[in-house]
Amino acid sequence: MGGEPDKEAQADENTERESWGIAADEWDAAFGWADDLPADGAGDAARGAADTAPGEPFKVWRCNWAAVECFMRCQSQWHKDAMGQFDGLRYPGVEVVMRRTRVSDKDAMFDKLQLMEVAALEVLRG
């Protein structure tokens, strides 16, 4: 994962940005890219959304944007137990999302999705 932006994700970002006719600096400002965060992930700022109030914008490292986007596409894949408590994502559905969005490194993406799943469950379960 080494902090380097995914070249495929960067190309997709550029294509989408260009389709909207938005300058790169305006796009970066709109999506809150976190180029100013430490490369090693150290420090409070690296936690990104952890210290941000719900509904407030937060910064995302470019190298993680594809994972955030994939996680958002999995929003209909949450499973609830018999008591109505969230207990995780439906992995077969997650696999379909990754295949349909042509994720190239499914193992790395799945690892990132599981990290976000655990963090989301902490919030969802209160």
Description:
The chain has 126 residues and is mainly alpha-helical. Helix content is 51%, strand content 6%. It has helices at 7-20, 24-31, 62-73, 91-100, 106-125, and strands at residues 78-80, 86-89. The protein has a two-stranded antiparallel sheet. Strand 1 (78-80) and strand 2 form a beta hairpin. The two termini are 30 Å apart. Mean pLDDT is 76; it is low at 40-48.
Major sheet: 2 strands, antiparallel
Give the uncertain stretches in residue-range form.
40-48
Tally the beta strands. 2
- What is the approximate shape? globular
Brief write-up:
With 126 residues, the chain is mainly α. The chain has helices at residues 7-20, 24-31, 62-73, 91-100, 106-125, and strands at 78-80, 86-89. It has one domain (7-125).
Distinctive features:
about 130 residues; mainly alpha; two-stranded antiparallel sheet; 2 strands; globular
List the helices and strands and how they pair.
Blueprint: H1 7-20, H2 24-31, H3 62-73, E1 78-80, E2 86-89, H4 91-100, H5 106-125
Helix pairs in contact: 3-5
